[in-house]
What does this fold into?
Amino acid sequence: MQLSVHFTHTTNASPCRFAAQEFSIVKRKIAAIALANWALAQFTRNRSALPKRLEQKMSNGNRISRRSALGVMAGSAATIAAAANSETASVIAQGKAKFKHSVCKWCYKMELEELCKNAKEMGIHSVELLGEKDWDVPKKYGLICAMPLGVTTIGDGWNNPARHDKHVQDAERLLPLAKQAGMVNFIVFSGNRDAGLSDKDGMENCAKGLKRIMPLAEQLGITVCMELLNSKVDHKGYMCDRTPWGVELCKQVGSERFKLLYDIYHMQIMEGDVVRTIQDYNKYISHYHTGGVPGRAEIDDTQELNYKRVCSAIADTGFEGHIAQEFIPRRDPMTSLREAVKICTV
It folds into this structure.
Protein backbone atom coordinates (compact mmCIF):
# COMPACT_ATOMS: atom_id res chain seq x y z
CA MET A 1 0.00 0.00 0.00
CA GLN A 2 1.31 3.44 -0.94
CA LEU A 3 0.13 6.74 0.51
CA SER A 4 -1.01 8.97 -2.35
CA VAL A 5 0.10 12.55 -1.77
CA HIS A 6 -1.69 15.10 -4.00
CA PHE A 7 0.03 18.42 -4.65
CA THR A 8 -1.46 21.53 -6.23
CA HIS A 9 0.40 24.44 -7.77
CA THR A 10 -1.45 26.94 -9.88
CA THR A 11 -0.41 30.11 -11.69
CA ASN A 12 -1.67 32.22 -14.55
CA ALA A 13 1.85 32.95 -15.76
CA SER A 14 3.60 31.11 -18.56
CA PRO A 15 5.41 27.85 -17.74
CA CYS A 16 8.75 29.27 -18.84
CA ARG A 17 8.60 32.06 -16.33
CA PHE A 18 8.34 29.67 -13.42
CA ALA A 19 10.54 26.84 -14.71
CA ALA A 20 13.14 27.20 -11.97
CA GLN A 21 10.44 27.39 -9.29
CA GLU A 22 8.70 24.32 -10.65
CA PHE A 23 11.94 22.32 -10.61
CA SER A 24 12.46 23.14 -6.95
CA ILE A 25 8.85 22.25 -6.15
CA VAL A 26 9.18 18.90 -7.90
CA LYS A 27 12.19 18.06 -5.76
CA ARG A 28 10.24 18.91 -2.61
CA LYS A 29 7.28 16.87 -3.82
CA ILE A 30 9.49 13.83 -4.33
CA ALA A 31 10.94 14.22 -0.85
CA ALA A 32 7.47 14.56 0.68
CA ILE A 33 6.19 11.48 -1.12
CA ALA A 34 9.19 9.42 -0.05
CA LEU A 35 8.88 10.55 3.55
CA ALA A 36 5.14 9.94 3.71
CA ASN A 37 5.38 6.49 2.12
CA TRP A 38 8.25 5.51 4.40
CA ALA A 39 6.25 6.55 7.44
CA LEU A 40 3.28 4.52 6.24
CA ALA A 41 5.50 1.46 5.83
CA GLN A 42 6.72 1.85 9.40
CA PHE A 43 3.17 1.83 10.75
CA THR A 44 1.45 -0.63 8.42
CA ARG A 45 1.23 -3.25 11.17
CA ASN A 46 0.32 -0.84 13.91
CA ARG A 47 -2.06 1.88 12.80
CA SER A 48 -2.61 2.96 16.38
CA ALA A 49 0.94 4.36 16.34
CA LEU A 50 0.19 6.72 13.46
CA PRO A 51 0.04 10.43 14.18
CA LYS A 52 -3.63 11.18 14.81
CA ARG A 53 -4.02 13.73 12.02
CA LEU A 54 -2.46 11.42 9.44
CA GLU A 55 -4.57 8.49 10.65
CA GLN A 56 -7.75 10.58 10.25
CA LYS A 57 -6.82 11.59 6.72
CA MET A 58 -6.06 8.00 5.77
CA SER A 59 -9.26 6.67 7.33
CA ASN A 60 -11.33 9.21 5.43
CA GLY A 61 -9.69 8.21 2.14
CA ASN A 62 -8.45 11.76 1.60
CA ARG A 63 -5.37 12.86 -0.23
CA ILE A 64 -3.12 15.25 1.59
CA SER A 65 -1.22 18.22 0.24
CA ARG A 66 2.53 18.61 0.24
CA ARG A 67 2.32 21.16 3.04
CA SER A 68 0.07 18.93 5.11
CA ALA A 69 2.29 15.89 4.57
CA LEU A 70 5.44 17.75 5.52
CA GLY A 71 3.77 19.27 8.55
CA VAL A 72 2.51 15.96 9.85
CA MET A 73 5.79 14.20 9.19
CA ALA A 74 7.90 16.93 10.77
CA GLY A 75 5.69 16.87 13.84
CA SER A 76 5.91 13.11 14.13
CA ALA A 77 9.66 12.62 13.46
CA ALA A 78 10.30 11.58 17.05
CA THR A 79 7.37 9.15 16.92
CA ILE A 80 8.70 7.58 13.73
CA ALA A 81 12.20 7.19 15.16
CA ALA A 82 10.85 5.73 18.40
CA ALA A 83 8.76 3.23 16.47
CA ALA A 84 11.77 2.19 14.36
CA ASN A 85 13.86 1.81 17.52
CA SER A 86 11.12 -0.25 19.14
CA GLU A 87 10.97 -2.55 16.12
CA THR A 88 14.74 -3.06 16.38
CA ALA A 89 14.42 -3.90 20.07
CA SER A 90 11.82 -6.50 19.17
CA VAL A 91 14.23 -8.13 16.71
CA ILE A 92 17.02 -8.18 19.30
CA ALA A 93 14.71 -9.70 21.90
CA GLN A 94 14.03 -12.62 19.55
CA GLY A 95 17.74 -13.41 19.11
CA LYS A 96 18.96 -16.73 20.48
CA ALA A 97 22.62 -15.80 21.03
CA LYS A 98 23.89 -15.09 24.55
CA PHE A 99 25.98 -12.08 23.59
CA LYS A 100 24.81 -8.48 24.03
CA HIS A 101 24.98 -5.43 21.78
CA SER A 102 27.06 -2.31 22.32
CA VAL A 103 27.94 0.80 20.33
CA CYS A 104 31.09 2.95 20.30
CA LYS A 105 30.42 6.61 20.96
CA TRP A 106 33.27 8.11 18.90
CA CYS A 107 31.70 7.01 15.61
CA TYR A 108 28.56 9.11 16.09
CA LYS A 109 28.62 12.89 15.82
CA MET A 110 25.85 13.42 18.34
CA GLU A 111 25.50 14.11 22.03
CA LEU A 112 26.18 11.14 24.32
CA GLU A 113 22.78 11.56 25.96
CA GLU A 114 21.02 11.33 22.60
CA LEU A 115 22.97 8.24 21.61
CA CYS A 116 22.19 6.59 24.95
CA LYS A 117 18.48 7.35 24.55
CA ASN A 118 18.38 5.81 21.09
CA ALA A 119 20.49 2.82 22.14
CA LYS A 120 18.15 2.08 25.04
CA GLU A 121 15.10 2.23 22.77
CA MET A 122 16.79 -0.14 20.30
CA GLY A 123 17.55 -2.75 22.96
CA ILE A 124 21.30 -2.10 22.88
CA HIS A 125 22.95 -2.90 26.22
CA SER A 126 25.97 -0.58 26.25
CA VAL A 127 27.54 2.62 24.95
CA GLU A 128 31.31 2.32 25.14
CA LEU A 129 34.78 3.78 24.67
CA LEU A 130 33.91 6.56 27.08
CA GLY A 131 36.32 8.62 29.14
CA GLU A 132 36.20 8.73 32.91
CA LYS A 133 33.96 11.80 33.10
CA ASP A 134 31.27 10.08 31.02
CA TRP A 135 31.20 6.66 32.66
CA ASP A 136 28.01 7.33 34.58
CA VAL A 137 25.99 8.79 31.70
CA PRO A 138 24.76 5.45 30.27
CA LYS A 139 23.45 4.49 33.72
CA LYS A 140 20.82 7.22 33.45
CA TYR A 141 19.31 5.20 30.62
CA GLY A 142 19.68 1.76 32.17
CA LEU A 143 22.80 1.03 30.11
CA ILE A 144 26.41 0.22 30.91
CA CYS A 145 29.77 1.15 29.42
CA ALA A 146 31.05 -2.28 28.41
CA MET A 147 34.53 -1.05 27.43
CA PRO A 148 35.84 2.21 28.93
CA LEU A 149 38.87 4.03 27.60
CA GLY A 150 42.06 2.94 29.33
CA VAL A 151 45.39 4.41 30.35
CA THR A 152 47.42 4.34 27.13
CA THR A 153 47.15 5.64 23.61
CA ILE A 154 47.40 3.31 20.61
CA GLY A 155 50.98 4.23 19.75
CA ASP A 156 52.25 4.70 23.31
CA GLY A 157 51.54 1.31 24.84
CA TRP A 158 53.01 -1.46 26.95
CA ASN A 159 55.83 -2.51 24.60
CA ASN A 160 57.93 0.45 25.80
CA PRO A 161 59.51 -0.32 29.21
CA ALA A 162 60.31 3.35 29.75
CA ARG A 163 56.57 4.01 29.98
CA HIS A 164 55.70 1.17 32.37
CA ASP A 165 55.87 3.16 35.59
CA LYS A 166 53.51 5.81 34.20
CA HIS A 167 51.09 3.22 32.79
CA VAL A 168 51.07 1.28 36.06
CA GLN A 169 50.48 4.43 38.08
CA ASP A 170 47.54 5.42 35.85
CA ALA A 171 46.09 1.91 35.94
CA GLU A 172 46.30 1.73 39.72
CA ARG A 173 44.27 4.93 39.89
CA LEU A 174 41.72 4.08 37.20
CA LEU A 175 41.04 0.38 37.82
CA PRO A 176 39.41 0.94 41.27
CA LEU A 177 37.36 3.80 39.82
CA ALA A 178 36.26 1.58 36.96
CA LYS A 179 35.17 -1.05 39.48
CA GLN A 180 33.19 1.53 41.43
CA ALA A 181 31.48 2.58 38.20
CA GLY A 182 30.47 -1.01 37.47
CA MET A 183 32.99 -1.72 34.72
CA VAL A 184 34.12 -5.26 33.97
CA ASN A 185 36.59 -4.54 31.14
CA PHE A 186 39.54 -2.21 30.63
CA ILE A 187 41.20 -1.53 27.27
CA VAL A 188 44.96 -1.43 26.67
CA PHE A 189 47.22 -1.19 23.61
CA SER A 190 50.57 -2.69 22.69
CA GLY A 191 52.12 0.45 21.24
CA ASN A 192 53.96 0.79 17.95
CA ARG A 193 57.04 -0.96 16.57
CA ASP A 194 59.71 1.60 17.35
CA ALA A 195 63.00 1.43 15.47
CA GLY A 196 64.96 -1.63 16.46
CA LEU A 197 62.16 -3.20 18.54
CA SER A 198 61.36 -6.73 17.40
CA ASP A 199 57.93 -8.32 17.86
CA LYS A 200 59.50 -10.83 20.26
CA ASP A 201 61.05 -8.16 22.46
CA GLY A 202 57.91 -6.06 22.27
CA MET A 203 55.82 -8.98 23.46
CA GLU A 204 58.17 -9.63 26.38
CA ASN A 205 58.01 -5.93 27.31
CA CYS A 206 54.21 -5.96 27.18
CA ALA A 207 53.99 -9.07 29.35
CA LYS A 208 56.43 -7.66 31.90
CA GLY A 209 54.50 -4.41 32.27
CA LEU A 210 51.03 -5.93 32.24
CA LYS A 211 51.94 -8.45 34.94
CA ARG A 212 52.41 -5.48 37.27
CA ILE A 213 48.73 -4.53 37.06
CA MET A 214 47.13 -7.99 36.74
CA PRO A 215 46.98 -8.74 40.50
CA LEU A 216 44.87 -5.60 41.01
CA ALA A 217 42.68 -6.39 37.99
CA GLU A 218 42.15 -9.93 39.29
CA GLN A 219 41.28 -8.62 42.76
CA LEU A 220 38.73 -6.21 41.29
CA GLY A 221 37.29 -8.71 38.79
CA ILE A 222 38.16 -6.57 35.78
CA THR A 223 39.35 -8.08 32.50
CA VAL A 224 42.19 -6.17 30.84
CA CYS A 225 41.70 -6.34 27.06
CA MET A 226 44.38 -5.63 24.48
CA GLU A 227 42.90 -4.57 21.17
CA LEU A 228 43.97 -6.13 17.89
CA LEU A 229 44.35 -3.37 15.27
CA ASN A 230 45.53 -3.31 11.67
CA SER A 231 48.93 -1.83 10.87
CA LYS A 232 48.29 -1.85 7.13
CA VAL A 233 45.72 0.93 6.71
CA ASP A 234 44.80 2.75 9.92
CA HIS A 235 47.56 2.32 12.52
CA LYS A 236 50.93 2.08 10.85
CA GLY A 237 53.49 0.32 13.02
CA TYR A 238 51.04 -1.02 15.62
CA MET A 239 52.50 -4.19 17.14
CA CYS A 240 49.46 -6.20 18.27
CA ASP A 241 48.24 -6.54 14.70
CA ARG A 242 47.72 -10.30 14.37
CA THR A 243 45.69 -12.74 16.43
CA PRO A 244 48.48 -15.32 17.03
CA TRP A 245 50.72 -12.57 18.45
CA GLY A 246 47.95 -11.51 20.81
CA VAL A 247 47.22 -15.09 21.83
CA GLU A 248 50.87 -15.70 22.65
CA LEU A 249 50.87 -12.53 24.76
CA CYS A 250 47.86 -13.86 26.67
CA LYS A 251 49.82 -17.02 27.40
CA GLN A 252 52.83 -15.03 28.60
CA VAL A 253 50.77 -12.79 30.88
CA GLY A 254 49.18 -15.96 32.24
CA SER A 255 45.99 -14.54 33.77
CA GLU A 256 42.36 -15.35 33.09
CA ARG A 257 41.78 -11.62 33.47
CA PHE A 258 43.88 -10.76 30.44
CA LYS A 259 42.18 -11.24 27.07
CA LEU A 260 41.93 -9.80 23.57
CA LEU A 261 39.55 -7.31 22.04
CA TYR A 262 39.07 -8.84 18.60
CA ASP A 263 38.23 -6.10 16.13
CA ILE A 264 36.66 -7.85 13.14
CA TYR A 265 37.28 -4.91 10.81
CA HIS A 266 40.97 -4.72 11.64
CA MET A 267 41.61 -8.45 11.52
CA GLN A 268 39.82 -8.86 8.20
CA ILE A 269 42.35 -6.39 6.79
CA MET A 270 45.34 -8.12 8.37
CA GLU A 271 44.40 -11.80 8.26
CA GLY A 272 40.99 -12.57 6.82
CA ASP A 273 39.76 -16.07 7.75
CA VAL A 274 37.67 -14.43 10.48
CA VAL A 275 35.29 -17.29 11.27
CA ARG A 276 38.05 -19.90 11.62
CA THR A 277 40.08 -17.52 13.80
CA ILE A 278 37.13 -17.01 16.14
CA GLN A 279 36.55 -20.75 16.31
CA ASP A 280 40.21 -21.47 17.08
CA TYR A 281 40.98 -18.65 19.52
CA ASN A 282 37.67 -17.69 21.12
CA LYS A 283 38.82 -18.56 24.65
CA TYR A 284 41.32 -15.70 24.42
CA ILE A 285 38.71 -13.16 23.24
CA SER A 286 36.47 -11.21 25.62
CA HIS A 287 35.09 -8.45 23.37
CA TYR A 288 34.35 -7.77 19.69
CA HIS A 289 34.18 -4.67 17.48
CA THR A 290 32.64 -4.38 14.02
CA GLY A 291 33.22 -2.27 10.91
CA GLY A 292 32.66 -2.61 7.17
CA VAL A 293 35.65 -3.60 5.03
CA PRO A 294 36.93 -1.67 3.20
CA GLY A 295 36.28 1.83 4.51
CA ARG A 296 34.98 1.16 8.03
CA ALA A 297 31.46 2.19 7.03
CA GLU A 298 28.19 0.28 7.45
CA ILE A 299 28.36 -3.50 7.84
CA ASP A 300 25.69 -4.13 5.20
CA ASP A 301 26.07 -5.57 1.69
CA THR A 302 28.14 -2.59 0.53
CA GLN A 303 31.22 -4.27 2.08
CA GLU A 304 32.89 -7.67 1.89
CA LEU A 305 32.19 -9.33 5.24
CA ASN A 306 29.17 -11.51 5.98
CA TYR A 307 28.46 -10.24 9.47
CA LYS A 308 25.45 -12.48 9.96
CA ARG A 309 27.73 -15.50 9.48
CA VAL A 310 30.48 -14.02 11.64
CA CYS A 311 28.04 -13.36 14.50
CA SER A 312 26.64 -16.86 14.19
CA ALA A 313 30.19 -18.18 14.63
CA ILE A 314 30.61 -16.01 17.73
CA ALA A 315 27.28 -17.25 19.11
CA ASP A 316 28.30 -20.85 18.51
CA THR A 317 31.25 -20.39 20.90
CA GLY A 318 28.82 -19.56 23.73
CA PHE A 319 30.17 -16.00 23.98
CA GLU A 320 28.26 -13.94 26.57
CA GLY A 321 30.08 -10.61 26.29
CA HIS A 322 29.46 -7.69 23.93
CA ILE A 323 29.69 -7.10 20.20
CA ALA A 324 30.12 -3.36 19.70
CA GLN A 325 29.32 -1.47 16.50
CA GLU A 326 32.38 0.60 15.59
CA PHE A 327 31.66 1.63 12.02
CA ILE A 328 31.50 5.22 10.78
CA PRO A 329 28.04 5.74 9.25
CA ARG A 330 27.79 7.28 5.79
CA ARG A 331 24.00 7.50 5.92
CA ASP A 332 21.58 8.48 8.67
CA PRO A 333 23.49 7.29 11.78
CA MET A 334 20.57 5.82 13.71
CA THR A 335 19.14 4.07 10.64
CA SER A 336 22.55 2.50 10.04
CA LEU A 337 22.88 1.52 13.70
CA ARG A 338 19.45 -0.13 13.71
CA GLU A 339 20.34 -2.10 10.59
CA ALA A 340 23.70 -3.14 12.04
CA VAL A 341 22.40 -4.57 15.31
CA LYS A 342 19.69 -6.43 13.39
CA ILE A 343 22.34 -7.94 11.10
CA CYS A 344 24.33 -9.02 14.16
CA THR A 345 21.34 -10.49 15.98
CA VAL A 346 21.33 -14.27 15.56
In short: The chain is about 45% helix and 10% strand.
